[in-house]
């Protein structure tokens, strides 16, 4: 998860820099590079956690009961790792493009309107307990990831360059001939 959060920051900075530079191609390349790299790492961890599901808990405990519970929940953990390898990167892309409010609304809808209610119903009504809550949250994360993929895919990045330029120009203060209160000598 922490690796993906690092990619979130990298994607955000890189996309914002490329848009500010006026390079839609650079922004798209950055998006593909960070997303695919994080996804590949997520796939490796996904497979690792699936293969080690029966032995994973023994790193931390000698209890067979705990190890069985961890083995039972490991597929959900593996799915969480895979989804959370892409979702933060796409959130970083959106933040880098200046869509913070869009990400906030997607998060609210995905988790509070879909993930948590489904998790509560599965966990408590259908008696799936922790698995049900976890499945609900996974569905929320899946919805968030798919939504961000669609938004990113359908974005006109050339238009985003123009929007970034207009945001910069709105706050841009041209340099004056006077610097720090000292008059420059025409040099």
UniProtKB/TrEMBL annotation:
It comes from Gossypium raimondii. One of its GO terms (cellular component) is membrane. Keywords: Membrane, Transmembrane, Transmembrane helix. The chain crosses the membrane at residues 31-52, 73-96, 102-126, 133-153. InterPro entries: MATE_fam (IPR002528). This is Polysaccharide biosynthesis protein C-terminal domain-containing protein. GO terms for molecular function: antiporter activity; xenobiotic transmembrane transporter activity. Belongs to the multi antimicrobial extrusion (MATE) (TC 2.A.66.1) family. The lineage of its organism: Eukaryota, Viridiplantae, Streptophyta, Embryophyta, Tracheophyta.
